[in-house]
Amino acid sequence: MLAGALLAGPAWAASPLESPAPEASESAAPAAGSIDVERDPAQDDRIAARLADIFANVPSLAGVEASVRQGVVTLTGTAPDAEAVDRAEAIAAGVEGVVTVENAVERDVSVNVGGSIGGLGEKLRELLRMLPLVGMALLVAALIIGFGYLLASLGRVWHRLAPNSFLAELIASAIRFVFIVLALVVALDMIGAGTLMGAVLGGAGVVGIALGFAMRDTVENYVASLMLSLRQPFRANDHVVIEDFEGRVIRLTSRATVLMTLDGNHLRIPNSTVFKAVILNYTRNPQRRFDFTLGVDADDDAMAARQLGRETLRGLDFVLDNPAAEVRITEVGDSNVALQFLGWVDQRETDWYKARTRAIAACKVALEGAGFALPEPIYRLRFDPRTSALPFENLGEHLKGEGAGKPAPSPAPKPAPAPVTGHAEDVKPDDEIERMVDAERREGGGDQANDLLDHSRPVE
What pTM, to 2 d.p., does this model score? Predict the structure, then answer.
């Protein structure tokens, strides 16, 4: 009897109603030795009833049905999404006494027209209930935007604080933009659309980055215009060279720098190019030096030619005494000694090109009048040794004509040129282009109002 009791003891201890169920959430497969050999027939009905009660109280699982046979649960029916299907399987596996779960639940892809219309109606009713709050949010947003536009309209204040009109308009635009964004954030927060507000701000940031890359050149040009308006690298009518472009400045706009070339043509250079370019301004310093090179014969006295050239330059009335004119010996060429002539003029009273032309003519005449030769290049011809030489003593026999053996007559001396004085030609500056630029600025109309050049501010 005792042995029988001992043998029956494990069977009673292993009863599925008394022993703990395995962890169904970890795995649907039972652990080794956890399946009962003997099973209560009514337990399948209890499991099915329990699952039916659970699924009936979960709206997303109302269409799921469970059948149980020998502890094996088979789920059928439909669920609205894959998450609900997995949830039904997890619930069934967690019930005590379930051996495994066969999940045959399908996702419901049908359209519930009645439910959709009912949901839409509920949303409309909710929107109607929110209309007072939405109206209040719109009113607050309108007040914020109106205050921003009122603040941006104080043009006199911004023009007084900003160094130029372009920067003043930029400040006003920035104020309007900031207040519009602030109004949008406050309005969405009032109606409880925080998620929508984050999406709007995030989308605006992404769109801003995309536009920044797409309009990189335009943005760079706009920033360069702002920096040039602050730096003021030149004035109107300044004679400048920007990269390879030379002319007089007409105006600086928010997009380009407008020049009038020395040929009288309009030239527009993007401000991004102007900002990065090397700018040569001839107008900033009225004193400008001209230079040219003349060569004297290698047998002549180069120092005497240098002294004569210096005196000639300093004798011209348009050449400044300070800095004084100078002549330098730069190199010894194949057939001459090169002299570099340097002289300074005041561009407000003397045209640079005219002064250089006059100086070249005066120095050339002075050197030739003093007996200095300005030789042309001399070339020495050397015959190849394989070429038969022409005997000098038989040269006359090969010449034709009656004067073959006679020496060539010497050329007649050239008449001495008339001296060049400093008053032979007007060297006053040519102001045609300057007058054209002034007329263009006076007749500019709207473009003149957008000129960023400010004569009241110092030039960089």
Answer: 0.53
